[in-house]
Amino acid sequence: MGSVKIEKLTKKFGDVTALHDINLDIREGEFFALLGPSGCGKTTTMRCIAGFESPTTGAIYIGDREMKGISANRRNCGMVFQSYALFPHMDVFDNVAYSLNIKQLNSSNFFAKLPIYTRLLSKRLGKTPKNIENKVMEMLRYVELEQYSDRLTSELSGGQQQRVALARALVMEPAVLLMDEPLSNLDQKLRHSMRNTIRSIQQDLGITTIFVTHDQEEAMSMADRIAVMDHGKVVQVGTPTDLYSNPATPFIADFVGTSNILKASVEGEENSLTVVKGDGFVLRSANKTDKTEVDVIIRPEHVKVVDAGKAVNGADTNVIQGKVLMSTYLGSIVRYDVQVGSYQLIVDTTYSSGTGIFEEGRKVKLTVEHERVLLI
Ligand code: ADP
Ligand code: MG
């Protein structure tokens, strides 16, 4: 029912190719994030799904129905935008009830149309059609705005307005919920709590959700799977852990989490490890590669720092020489910037009061397991 399939979707605006041959398979009930920098085509993808743009080529299916020729209001998609797009002159209840009323107005049953004309009056008299009132109040309970139903939306905070927008989308019981950067206008703290609110409502209702963001942390913490987009293309689809541990390209390694990315040449193979050499380092990796030039990806938390004079043993470990440029104490971890050749590596170590912190200028050894050296 609520699955979304996108096949070979290309969208051009004149000379600009906003989307280039996009393929996505979003499962029923899944929380799916589109992640990528500004201008990569996220909104255009959403607008094509919602029916506000028509594909130049390619097809979109919601459930098993192809959407070609089906207008936006008949696609059964709920939408929430960065700008809340609420009616400021209406109260919370009416904002959420609005589309339901319109739907009832459009339905073929003449008697069903009557309530909307008298709604404002009847609401005062307690005669709002029960079916609408029940649904609206249930949704307001979900987003914890029950006690605000009589407030004008212009009197609400940003977070509250965004929850009204969410309730308004959900009250229609859409097959698919589309959210385009819904949290971007909220301050940091509110953004964090809204992540949880949205995720738990989505889980509760089991509604297929496509969530657009340029914030990797947001995508990682909320989504079942993520499609990373760049320049109108989907570059990788996977679970947050897939993307983190096996980024397909340096762009993804850099965009998802923090990475050290080093250029290196492949020197050969030794004991079924690939030996690579770059400016100031030789490393062995458990990865195989056909290439002669590679990008070496090392996550900051996979590196250990030890005193340059200390012997390191461990058959599965690389050792490289470096010099501490800066140390930043972050509570439970210490982040080091370490000079290796012409590179400045970021290293996150667990703080221990026993070893203290290596001071700036200190010569150190960095160790990283062969398994943790990724070649792409
Ligand atoms: P995102 O949401 O990821 O920031 P968009 O989907 O808004 O990216 O835009 C993708 C590309 O398509 C951009 O280069 C943008 O300038 C272009 N674009 C989007 N909408 C239009 C339009 N209506 N006319 C022309 N170009 C557009
Ligand atoms: Mg956008």
TrEMBL record:
One of its GO terms (cellular component) is ATP-binding cassette (ABC) transporter complex. GO terms for molecular function: ABC-type transporter activity; ATP binding; ATP hydrolysis activity. Pfam families: ABC_tran, TOBE_2. Residues 4-256 form the ABC transporter domain. Keywords: ATP-binding, Nucleotide-binding, Transport. This is ABC transporter ATP-binding protein. It comes from Siminovitchia fortis.
